[in-house]
Recover the amino acids of this structure.
């Protein structure tokens, strides 16, 4: 029997109406800012925090590339916070929190009530876990996920994508110190 346990465990997609800020986890893909653009335009989110310090062939960091996209589509620079030093998910969160503190100040950050996390589906649980560890406890989180190479319902048939999903589960185990899911040693499914 093939179960899609990892998809349901990793993909933290949730419905949401509005959020104070969107957190975009660093990535080379434009998909997250393509998702955030209409939310900024419709004012369902007030502000976006773009993270990611890895440089692409164009010389821009992930966050700078996302910022450029939003600015080219008419989003005001005042609505964009930029964290462009991080190289890992944990750094996205910690350095991103520092940017939020710089902008909002330590007293008004407690007024931040909701955050929309925009992340790859297979990465969303770990991003949320790390945000909940480092940001104020009063924040309500929502998650908007997107697909890249690892397609929902198909990743297990591609050895490279399967390895990425398995690696993500191992990273969550390392972060949380628990043993969560066991990949089935043979076949294409998970037990």
């Amino acid at each position: 029997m093939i179960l899609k346990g990892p998809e349901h465990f990793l993909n933290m997609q949730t419905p949401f109406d509005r959020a104070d800020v969107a957190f975009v986890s660093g990535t080379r893909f434009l998909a997250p800012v393509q998702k955030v653009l209409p939310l900024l335009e419709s004012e369902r989110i007030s502000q976006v925090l773009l993270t990611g310090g890895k440089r692409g062939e164009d010389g821009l960091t992930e966050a700078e590339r996302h910022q450029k996209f939003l600015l080219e589509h008419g989003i005001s620079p005042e609505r964009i916070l930029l964290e462009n030093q991080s190289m890992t998910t944990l750094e996205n969160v910690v350095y991103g929190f520092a940017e939020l503190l710089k902008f909002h100040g330590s007293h008004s950050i407690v007024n931040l009530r909701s955050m929309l996390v925009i992340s790859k589906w297979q990465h969303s649980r770990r991003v949320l876990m790390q945000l909940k560890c480092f940001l104020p406890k009063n924040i309500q989180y929502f998650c908007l996920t997107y697909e890249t190479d690892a397609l929902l319902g198909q990743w297990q048939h591609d050895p490279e994508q399967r390895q990425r999903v398995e690696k993500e589960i191992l990273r969550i185990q390392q972060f949380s110190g628990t043993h969560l899911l066991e990949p089935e040693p043979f076949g294409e499914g998970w037990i």
Observations:
- DSSP finds six helices and five strands in the chain.
- The first helix runs from residue 5 to 10.
